[in-house]
Amino acid sequence: MPSERPTGFGIHDLSFASTRFVLTHAELSRHRGDDVSKYHAGIGQRAMSVPAVDEDIVTMAAAAAGPVVERHGADNIRTLVFATETSVDQSKSAGVYVHSLLGLPPQIRVVELKQACYSATAGLQFATALVHRDPDQQVLVIASDVSRYDLDSPGEATQGAAAAALLVSADPALIRLEGPSGLFTRDVMDFWRPNYRSTALVKGKESVTAYLQALEAAWQDYRARGGVPHGDLRAVCYHQPYSRMAHKAHRYLLERCAGGADPLAVDRAVGLTTGYNELLGNSYTASVYLALAALLEGDDELAGRLVGLFSYGSGSVAEFFAGRVQPGYRDHLRTAAHQEAVTRRWPVDYATYRDLRETLLPTDGGHYSLPQQTAGPFRLAGIRGHERIYEPTDR
Ligand code: HMG
Predict the structure, then answer these.
(1) Is 239 tagged catalytic?
(2) Which of 96, 283, 285, 290 is the least buried, fewest Cβ under 10 Å from its Cβ?
């Protein structure tokens, strides 16, 4: 007898990890001589994750995905998509290191995707199509990034780092993707990072305008293709370069497309989505999925409700789509582990943060060992002849 056709496809599990260290915006404002309310109220940020010298996108990604593999096994995972814009190699996918650290079977395709903060959503959509073709398969989509702007630039307050791992499957336990996607691509230089730079270049105010214009265009495409009206969405998870952006974006959407924005309606739609992002900072590709984690963990009445997701990657590509929260979703959340990932970070003062930022990995092909600083399960142990050496820790 053929097995019954699944009723939907989407996110079955969601796990995130961040860094060893954290810089608070109170500490940043002391260094800069700014009023801290510019950060707390103005951009809605309280702290940003700062990687230890032996942490990077690979160690965070493996830390995020490890618990997913532990819970579900690896037998059905046939594809690993690694989404990042802070890649560590021009050729080799960071996902291959993760594949090795997690001991995944060799019968898997692994690939890295890039389009600024958008690529995890591309990964999710590609994964859903693969699973639709063969519902026995699962796809591991990992978004991992470290956001870095020049020191003392306006962007510095909007840095951060985190990885989110999504297991995409048939009959998902958390979110079933539903309805069309609204899409929008435009060649715009709002934020970019040439290969020879370790920090991003950004036209701050223009980037906010580009984000909002892309939101409006993606929303219009979503509606034109049969997407539900905004009133049918219980909440919207926005890409959050800083958490006030979610409020700004929803207000803009309602003003442009619904004739007005009641502040209470804006707060109801995005208020529960910002909890992790305001403490971790901009995690680029992972950001919209940290918003989803915060929403699912913060609201216990979402079963059966539709939530919107808006993914924006500078440069720029945007997508608006929706998913229906599944009955029993609360039983599959990782609230305690996520809260621990946030609270166990070690606060650093501005001078220590600056030292960490200025510690550059050698590029001369020599052999270097890195001190163990991470409290996570994997570390970058060193570099030997241009090869990155990763290893598990005893954590
Ligand atoms: P800035 O010049 O530091 O700050 O730039 P500001 O003067 O514009 O102030 C920010 C807000 O705080 C303003 O409110 C002020 O009024 C308010 P708004 O006009 O936005 O409503 N403010 C205060 N509020 C209370 N008390 C005070 C106070 N002082 C000021 N005392 C900017 C801010 C975000 C532009 C800057 O940090 C930056 O350039 N960040 C990087 C770029 C960015 O995050 N862009 C977002 C859209 S693009 C995107 O999301 C893509 C991205 O994630 C990259 C990717 O796709 O890969 C970045």
Answers:
(1) yes
(2) 96
Among this protein's residues, is 117 annotated catalytic?
yes
User: Residue 66 has what DSSP assignment?
Assistant: H
Q: Within its chain, how far is the Cα of 256 from the centroid?
A: 27
Sorting pLDDT into bands at 50, 70 and 90, what band is 5? confident
Domain 176-329, architecture per CATH: 3-Layer(aba) Sandwich (3.40)
Q: Where are the beta strands (DSSP E) in 186-259?
A: 191-192, 201-202, 233-238
Per the residue annotation, which of 12, 25, 99, 239 is the catalytic one? 239
Residues 348 and 21 sit within 8 Å (Cβ to Cβ): yes
CA 276 to ligand 1 centroid distance, Å: 18
For residues 309 and 321, the answer to whether their CB atoms sit within 8 Å is yes
Between the CA of 269 and the centroid of ligand 1 the distance, in Å, is 21
pLDDT of residue 3: 59
pLDDT category, 130, cuts 50, 70, 90? very high
Q: Closest residue (by CA) to atom 50 of ligand 1? A: 241
Nearest CA to ligand 1 atom 30: 38
Question: Where, residue-wise, is CATH 3.40.47.10 in the chain?
Answer: 9-173+333-392, 176-329
Average the pLDDT over 244-267 and give the result.
95
Whether pLDDT at 52 is above 90: yes
Give per-residue pLDDT as tens, 306-324.
Answer: 999 999 999 999 999 999 9
CATH 3.30.470.10, applies to 9-173+333-392: no
CB of 238 closer than 8 Å to CB of 288: yes
Q: How many other CB atoms are there within 10 angstroms of residue 363's CB atom?
A: 8
Taking the whole predicted model, whether its pTM rises above 0.90 is answered as: yes
- Our answer to whether residue 85 is catalytic in this structure is yes
Distance (Å) from CA 204 to ligand 1 centroid = 7
| Residue tagged active-site, from 85, 112, 156, 297 | 85
Please report the atom of ligand 1 found closest to the CA of residue 314: 56
